[in-house]
Amino acid sequence: MTSQIIIATGALFGMLAVIFGAFGAHALKKVLTPEQLQSFEVGVKYQMYHAIVLLVLGLGFKDMLPTTIYWCFTIGIFLFSFSIYGLVLSDAKGKKLKFLGPITPLGGLLLVSGWFMVLFNML
How far is CA 123 from CA 12, 37, 68, 104, 116, in A? Predict the structure, then answer.
């Protein structure tokens, strides 16, 4: 995986995290319960944390980053954070998309796997 793709992916997820965070803090504050807003914020935080990780990895790897690390973080962000967004927003509309519930931990597992692979590659 090239550093340009990794950095671009990190930048995209970072930009979206800022947009979603602002959306949550302003537009959704009036619509969501405090618990729903807190869950939404967890999705935004994890998205931003891992966007920064992708940027650091893209900037720091002299050799090519193993593709599996990139995909674990990229798919993990999408499954974890975006399933939280979907769960919270659908719940706020009274039509909770329950099928998204099991997707969140799969995304979390991919994020943990990405971290493990970074550690393994550094040793």
Answer: 29, 39, 17, 29, 11
Report the greatest alpha carbon distance in the chain.
Answer: 49
Q: What three-state secondary structure class fits 61?
A: coil
Write down the pTM of the prediction: 0.93
H helices present in 1-102, as ranges: 3-26, 34-60, 67-92
Q: Where are the domains of the chain?
A: 3-122
Q: What is the 3-state secondary structure (H, E, C) of 22-34?
A: HHHHHCHHHCCCH
pLDDT at 12 over 80: yes
Q: Which amino acid is at 56?
A: V
